[in-house]
Amino acid sequence: MTHALEEDVASITDLVKRFTLERIAPDISTWDEAGEFPRRVYREAAAIGLLGLGYPEELGGTPASFALRNAMSTTMARYGGSGGLMASLFSINIGLPPIVRHGTRELKMEIAPAVIRGEKIAALAITEPGGGSDVAALRTTARRDGGDYIINGEKTFITSGMRADWITMAVRTGDAGSKGASGISMIVVPGDAIGLSRTRLEKMGWWCSDTGHLRMDNVRVPACYLVGEEGAGFRMIMSNFNGERLGMSAMALGFAQACFDEALDWSRQRKTFGSALVEKQVVRHKLVDMQMRIASTAAWLDAVARLADAGKLESDPDCVAQVCMLKNHSTQTMQFCADAAVQTLGGMGFMRGTKSERIYREVKVMMIGGGAEEIMKDLAARQLGL
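Structure (tokenized):
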């Protein structure tokens, strides 16, 4: 890092830490139990520039490097300890990029500024009940009818799916019998569109994230809501995944750090057999094992961020492979640290209200969402020419 970048990272880390400790951490357990968090959190995060980080100034954002965006994600994860809050609060970062990169100026100006201000919520809808990671097999259709598209189909596991005002949706356009990647397009569906229905999904973790199952029954959307050209959607989706996976890696690092912090604090306070837990060699070794994995993940994240900031995230096969492997490594680090922290806390680690208990429940979605481990390994192997 340059000295200037180091200062910027330190500044945003301090800002996000204070915001998270003051406006999120005190209420996160309550929000988890309630199954959602207040919409005011979007506006508060936007007011200090967090939602607009990385977006063009003309849309109300602040251009920022991946290093800065990763620092924000890692810090909020560390001090908030809630993947559910971050998943929905920052669904902007998977729902908005295709529009900003490929949409018309009119489409961008209609949607992006209000989302960046925290007044509207954006979501991304790709996964279908019968498709999972096989994006090319999606079956939701968008049929052209004059100046509109008529959409029919289903989407599931959609983050912010219950409250989203704008849904960037992958659909199949063109001939009714088209198959594979070539027939996929992206189109924006308004959350209040007639024929769109939503069902809330109950989950193992991410309780305060509103995850939905969407059904489209002859949903009519103006053709001007098409993002880019017909048939170009698959490339947009694959490009979008790279940024999502890098962001998830930064979050996983923060959650691992949260588990370490809680385990260390508990082991210093908890007395057993006449001395603090931290004085037991087996506990110290567990803490060292956690720190070892955290340090390697942090170094790898910094290295991949430098590649991304050099413009290699979408075009360089080695960088794509690095992102895939980092996503696996970071979530495995999170899994190890969550398990070690719960074990160190003992009975308290099994109680609701501790970060480690919440993060332990959220590990699996991090290892599956954005591309499951097995998919990441296979994609990395292909990028590396193995």
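The chain has a mean pLDDT of 94. The longest helix spans residues 233-269.
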